[in-house]
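Hi support team,

I've been running sequence recovery on a batch of backbones for a student project. Most finish fine, but this one hangs at about 90% for roughly twenty minutes before it completes. I'm not sure whether the input is malformed or the queue is just slow. I've pasted the structure tokens below so you can try to reproduce it. Let me know if you need the job ID as well.

Thanks,
M.K.
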């Protein structure tokens, strides 16, 4: 028993739609003014005129394989990619969603010949609902997916909100506001806070060694880099780890980290901080990080949070970098950072309060990530329900899909599809492309090894026909070419077996 409504019928995509093939437009502008020009890799330029006065769907042929664009009236110009502009009275928006749900990118063969073959798309089997139901489905999808987009846009704001929240907590902490009530209860003031600089706070400051890429390994010691630090936190991010086998001698030992060390990014994205809270094994830093080893008089977590605060170390280091327009910080910059340090018991209270609030922020972040994952999975679920007939109720008075299919068939016979286009410079008619003509061009290539693009540049003709001929040449009993993976280029190439 079919899981689809009785009024629906099984068809192939080719029974209903034709993927027309755009032709090269004369010199589409790259400036961004005018109508976007769609090509095989998405938008490839701009033109000052539109192509048609009807709604059109553009289908990515190469690069953005299977990506579906909806072009409103007037239609944008279309270069060398597929488009559909005849829908036989069916709602265009329905087919926009239907084609998206088919994931045509999966039809892209993993070979040296890239792109989507429209003949493969034509053989895709789908179920066709009555035309009235198509309209209802498209309207319902517009409504539901618009709500999904609204939720997505709102969720995207959460990481920024949480980051600002963490910064606000850090600023409140080092300004004394976070523990204002704590001091009132003890009849204390901020007069006891001391001003210290980095020279007084740290007994040892250094940066990582250069040229350690030669010691990279798949295992060994951890090699910490800028990517292991982040803003508005002092926790290490060890999701992506590089390993090294360090050199023997003093240079290797100099940059080995210890528990309690504070790391600071000093190039590019400066001012990120991490505290080594626990033993992570033998680990070193690269030249883009500074290692600051504290004297032991102060609480390491407080010093790290101070450095991470926009009102504290982060703000000072950012100004130092901007002040002389340099690409990074020096160790002298770290030594000159001015700290405001309360008594040890207040340091502990500040750290406890920061980490309690950060724990709440982390809980929100975790729930945000779960919600975003659910939301990203929601669109394919909604589309799947829509094209199984489960999204809107069926109307027994609708014209059956079988009659719609007959009408499309009759209209095709009476009016064969004509590719509509203007602003196109027609090329002189080329000789018909054959297996032998392609072989001849292959034999004339200067190298036995060549890519699909190398060969395509030498041949004028229909893209899909060209692809089909290459597949036929590869399938011959004694093929003149074969495919191989070029490890250096990390791409599939062809090899000419004989001249």
């Amino acid at each position: 028993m079919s899981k689809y409504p009785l009024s629906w019928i099984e068809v192939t995509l080719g029974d209903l739609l034709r993927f027309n093939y755009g032709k090269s437009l004369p010199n589409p502008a790259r400036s961004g003014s005018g109508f976007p020009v769609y090509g095989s890799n998405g938008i490839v330029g701009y033109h000052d005129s539109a192509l048609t006065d009807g709604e059109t769907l553009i289908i990515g042929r190469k690069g953005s394989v299977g990506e579906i664009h909806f072009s409103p009236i007037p239609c944008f110009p279309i270069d060398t990619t597929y488009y559909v502009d005849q829908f036989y009275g069916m709602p265009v928006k329905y087919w926009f969603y239907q084609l998206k749900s088919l994931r045509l990118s999966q039809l892209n063969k993993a070979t040296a010949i890239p792109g989507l073959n429209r003949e493969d798309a034509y053989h895709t089997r789908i179920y066709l609902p009555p035309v009235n139901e198509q309209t209802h489905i498209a309207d319902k999808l517009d409504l539901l997916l618009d709500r999904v987009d609204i939720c997505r846009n709102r969720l995207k704001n959460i990481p920024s909100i949480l980051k600002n929240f963490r910064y606000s907590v850090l600023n409140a902490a080092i300004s004394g506001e976070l523990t204002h009530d704590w001091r009132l209860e003890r009849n204390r003031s901020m007069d006891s806070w001391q001003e210290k600089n980095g020279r007084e706070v740290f007994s040892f400051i250094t940066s990582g060694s250069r040229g350690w890429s030669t010691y990279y390994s798949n295992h060994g010691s951890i090699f910490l880099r800028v990517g292991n630090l982040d803003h508005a936190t002092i926790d290490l991010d060890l999701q992506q780890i590089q390993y090294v086998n360090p050199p023997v001698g003093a240079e290797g030992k100099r940059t080995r980290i210890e528990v309690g060390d504070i790391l600071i990014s000093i190039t590019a994205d400066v001012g990120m901080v991490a505290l080594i809270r626990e033993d992570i094994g033998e680990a070193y830093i690269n030249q883009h990080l500074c290692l600051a080893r504290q004297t032991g008089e102060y609480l390491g977590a407080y010093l790290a949070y101070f450095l991470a605060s926009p009102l504290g170390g982060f703000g000072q280091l950012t100004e130092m970098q901007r002040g002389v327009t340099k690409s990074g910080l020096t160790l002298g910059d770290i030594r000159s950072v001015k700290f405001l340090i309360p008594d040890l018991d207040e340091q502990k209270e500040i750290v406890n309060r920061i980490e309690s609030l950060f724990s709440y922020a982390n809980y929100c972040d975790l729930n945000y990530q779960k919600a975003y994952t659910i939301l990203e999975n929601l669109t394919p679920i909604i589309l799947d329900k829509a094209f199984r007939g489960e999204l809107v109720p069926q109307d027994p008075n609708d014209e059956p899909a079988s009659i719609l299919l007959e009408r499309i068939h009759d209209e095709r016979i009476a009016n064969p599809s004509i590719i509509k286009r203007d602003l196109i410079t027609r090329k002189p008619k080329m000789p018909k492309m054959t297996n032998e003509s392609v072989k001849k061009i292959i034999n004339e290539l200067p190298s036995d090894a060549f890519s699909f693009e190398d060969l395509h540049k030498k041949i004028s003709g229909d893209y899909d026909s060209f692809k089909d001929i290459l597949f036929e040449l590869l399938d011959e009993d004694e093929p003149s070419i074969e495919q191989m993976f070029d490890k250096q280029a990390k791409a599939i190439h062809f090899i000419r077996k004989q001249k």
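--
Follow-up from support: It reproduced on our side and the slowdown came from queue contention, not your input. Residues 9-153+375-414 form a domain with the Adenine-n6-DNA-methyltransferase TaqI; Chain A, domain 2 fold (CATH 3.90.220.20). No action needed from you.
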